[in-house]
Fold:
Amino acid sequence: MNEPSVEAIASKANSRLTLWLVGIGAAVPLWFATYFQLPEFADFVLSLTGYDRSSHLGEALHFFFYDTPKVLLLLAGIVFLMGIIQTFFAPERTRALLSGKKLGIGNTLAATLGIVTPFCSCSAVPLFIGFLSAGVPLGVTFSFLISAPMVNEIALALLLGMFGWQVAALYLGLGLLIAIVSGLIIGKLGMEKYLQDWVREIHAGTAAPVDTAEMDWEARFRAGWHHVKEIVGKVWPYILAGIAVGAAIHGFVPQDFMASFMGKEVWWSVPAAVVMGVPMYTNAAGIIPVVEALIGKGAALGTTLAFMMSVIALSLPEILILRKVLKLPLIATFVGVVSSGILVVGFLFNVLL
Structure:
């Protein structure tokens, strides 16, 4: 039996690569077009239900119809990209890149990257998973996960316009400090064993090792697609559950009740605000008007900012999604460390301002 010639093999490989390039060339503009039409999509789907956003249920449904495809699109796109990038970097090289040669440099870079990525907590999870899959150290990935929703240009611009540069600068500095220090603490605790088994295998570089130096582009694209099927296939039910919980809370939580006790001048108002903020779910742009309304109703600034930070950095939906990635001890450590930092911010703002 005649073996195929070198030219025939090369021609077949080129054909497969061409198919990938055509597919990706069509998928990328479709991805962006879909992503930027999500508000209209959510409006349309909501109109089919007979509800509108003036009702609690209508607002909750709209939130779900908007955030579900948004997070899934981000997850698929980021994981595909990170899967391709991973083929260029051995896990050890990636770890070295973001670990930094000096203590905290990797955490500082990751936290700074979080500022320029305007994600809510659930939207930051896909990139968090992508970092882990590329072998980035656990503590560094947590610095990004904390910084991305908590500190971004939208929050800074709104705080600057509403409260002045001093409040915005203090918020920026303290938010970055929380992200960096929290990541350092989690990294020092050596809690990689509390990653879910499938994530730990990817993070350690033991899942399907390949010779990246010999890979062609068609193989790299296949590796990215394999990443999407592997990761999205595992976490999508948790994403739906998390967003459903967030949507229900977003639509039904009474704002007046929160303002009524956040305005009390008692020591426990800050921890109580943090506890109340964790079950909620929105992004920085969505919570800033609530912050302004709460302060207008007499809530202390530090208490209100602690509430805001807990809403956008420690949301219950985010924790539900992370449950598929992290084991309970690591989730508890993450919540405890970040909560402690937020409490410090709340008390400090109340003392200084």
Remarks:
- Residues 217-252 form the longest helix (36 residues).
- The chain has one domain: 37-352.
